[in-house]
Amino acid sequence: MASSQPKLTAAILIISETASKDPSTDKCIPALSQVFSDLGSSNWTISTTTIIPDSIPAIQDAVLKACDQGINLIITSGGTGFAVKDVTPEAVGPLIEKQAPGLVHGMLASSLQVTPFAVMSRPVAGVRGSSLILTLPGSPKGAKENLEAVFKLLSHACLQASGGDSRQMHSGGVKKLEKEAGVGGGEKVGGHSHGHGHGHSHGHGHGCGRDHGHGGHHGPKAHTAPEDRPQQSNDPSQGPSRRYRHSPYPMLSVKDALQQIDLHTPSPTTITLPVNESLVGHVLAEDVTAPESVPAFRASIVDGYAVIAGPDAPSTKGTFPVAMISHAQAGEHQKLQPGQIARITTGAPLPPGATSVVMVEDTILVSKTDDGTEEKEVEILTSEIEVGENVREVGSDVQAGDVIMRKGEGISAIGGEFGLLASVGVKQVSVYKNPVVGVLSTGDEIVNHDREGELKRGEVRDTNRPTLLTAIRGSGFEAVDLGIVSDKPGALEQTLRDATRKADVIITSGGVSMGELDLLKPTLERQLGGSIHFGRVAMKPGKPTTFATIPVKSNDGSRIDKVVFSLPGNPASCVVTYHLFVLPALHKLAGVEPKGCARVKVQLDGDVKLDKQRDEFHRAVVKAGADGLLHAVSTGGQRSSRIGSFKGANALLCLPAGEGNIKKGEMVDALLMGKLIGDV
Ligand SMILES: *[C@@H]1O[C@H](CO)[C@@H](O)[C@H](O)[C@H]1NC(C)=O
Ligand SMILES: *[C@@H]1O[C@H](CO)[C@@H](O)[C@H](O)[C@H]1NC(C)=O
């Protein structure tokens, strides 16, 4: 490397309660500055020295400030011990994006040669943005020795971290690197003179929630090829340096992903439910036959007079005594005798013996009873009354034993199915059990959306969990809030175990990108014995969508699979993938056909640009136009972090990957997520 290269910058942060009050007590700044001038004065400038008290926010502020300034090397001294006040690793650890355990090892190894007490030090090291951060012990001697132990490698590490071309730097092989760094092949620097992970890809597609500001939203890309990266593992116990740096899961097409979901989502299970309002939203698991006929008795459909008519009966024309009155109410009647009539109201049961009803318009009142309150005699003006006229026969609506609903039909809130079941006296039915869906968010940076107070640096309000909970309920299913789970491995495992007892389907969002904190997949596969059926889908947005099943023992001892979806950490992708992938699984479990959102043809009301590589699901408002067509208007920016672009969207346009635009006026497929809107 040419000596004309600009100097690397370093910041020295002394973490000491005492020195922060009285800077003259500090001996570390001179000791550390000495190392720089002795070993690398031509390469380094110390751009800042600061003394900070033992406080996590103060330490984080200072480190973040130095990172923002693009300082190449940030070293802290102090606060790495076991005393209560020692919080440096706790402050610096969360800020590190790429761990450098080799440097930690190197520092500890050198200290151990001096004193066994070195095991009591808890250093952390790693990269944030383009800065390398090291935490040294607080004693001037210890700090100096630790820094010296790794110093020769730091300029190389910092150049890489700041985005130097690693291929060019490596073109001479490891030997050349070692020579440049002034370390021989046999010289031991912490065991690994050549650490893992030379790739320095910026941003692993974290999306909004987890994007730390470098890499940007559009097209984050890795700068190394998969074959250039060391073999990695998804075993969390192997530590961060061995974790996957690229996804080991093959990229599936949307169609194949949906097929996997259909294949691995369990078939619906059957339960018996009483017929009451809670039945709405279920699908019948068997044909339902009517236990009773409707109507259950012969009833009049008009107000008038029940008579005995027919070819064998005397003419109905003439004046008759009114023998009884039948109102629409329960009760027994005596038999109507030939020559008698009965006053009857609409819906009332015909007296035994009556064949027909004459409507009141065809009659004249002849006389009243003595007290004047009731009819005594009525004249019927027609002889053309037929048997059964104006009578609703028993079972004329539904016959007992008729199949009134079929297996697979849904009980909706609008279709009158509940009323039909109720009308024939069905007391209980066999239906498919609706799935219960648990929703959790993962990430130490995630806070409840309604948490009081301003966000601390790095914190993100949880939009995905409330959004998903409402989307699930909006689809008619029960949703259980499982809260926010810390990125610590044990926490996720425990929450998922509990969740398999409460829910049939578990949706997580957040931990699906290739970050250091991506613990979901290893936890599913190793701790819970689950199977990941896919971990990447060729689509935009939603590429990191993951689908897995976890086998669990059900109450009766049989094995059932619980379904797990891990949706992208950014809110809009999360909603798209819910409708595209989760809903069909919920529908399968609930026995709903057809599964997923309804697919319709819509006409574009504006040009839409295609993505060159990936099929896109583009959020849009679809309205029913006066011309009888469905019209689609894009809801604007489709950047995956923009939940705002979802506002008002009721559909996803299904756009194939390709060059250029689909023009205004052309027809495309759309998936309807919500109610169709009329265009007024
Ligand atoms: C100083 O930088 C040059 C290249 O820029 C490198 O070869 C050399 O090893 C560095 N020296 C130290 C002590 O870091
Ligand atoms: C309806 O049935 C469900 C069982 O499916 C029961 O939990 C609920 O209490 C019932 N509701 C009423 C109003 O009876």
Automatic annotation (TrEMBL):
SUPFAM superfamilies from the UniProt entry: MoeA C-terminal domain-like, MoeA N-terminal region -like, Molybdenum cofactor biosynthesis proteins
UniProt pathway: Cofactor biosynthesis; molybdopterin biosynthesis
Keyword Nuclease: no
Cofactor(s) listed: Mg(2+)
Compositional bias segments (type: Basic residues): 191-207
Keywords from the UniProt entry: Magnesium, Metal-binding, Molybdenum, Molybdenum cofactor biosynthesis, Transferase
Gene Ontology cellular-component annotations: cytosol
Pfam family, one: MoeA_C
Catalytic activity field: adenylyl-molybdopterin + molybdate = Mo-molybdopterin + AMP + H(+); molybdopterin + ATP + H(+) = adenylyl-molybdopterin + diphosphate
All residue ranges annotated as the MoaB/Mog domain in the record: 11-157, 438-588
Biased composition (Polar residues): 231-240
Domain of life: Eukaryota
GO molecular function, one term: molybdopterin adenylyltransferase activity
Annotated GO biological process: Mo-molybdopterin cofactor biosynthetic process
Ranges where the record places region Disordered: 162-248
Family of the protein in this entry: Belongs to the MoeA family.
Function: Catalyzes two steps in the biosynthesis of the molybdenum cofactor. In the first step, molybdopterin is adenylated. Subsequently, molybdate is inserted into adenylated molybdopterin and AMP is released.
Protein name listed in UniProt: MoaB/Mog domain-containing protein
Organism, scientific name: Aureobasidium melanogenum (strain CBS 110374) (Aureobasidium pullulans var. melanogenum)
